[in-house]
Amino acid sequence: MRIFITGGTGLVGSRLIPRLRQRQDDVVLLSRRKQAAQDRFGSQCTIVEGDPTLAGVWMNAVGDCDAVVNLAGEGIFTRRWNADFKAQLRASRVKSTENIVGALAKSPLTASGRPKVLVNASAIGYYGPHGDEEITETDPPGNDVLAQMCADWEAAAQTAKPLGVRIAIVRIGVVLDKEGGALPQMLKPFKTIGVGGPVGSGKQWVSWIHHADLTGILGLALDDPEAVGPINATAPHPVTNKELTKAQGCALHRPSFLPAPAFALRVMLGEVAEVVTKGQRVLPKNALALGYAFQFPTIEPALADILG
Question: Is 121 helix (H, G, I), strand (E, B) or coil?
Answer without folding.
Answer: strand
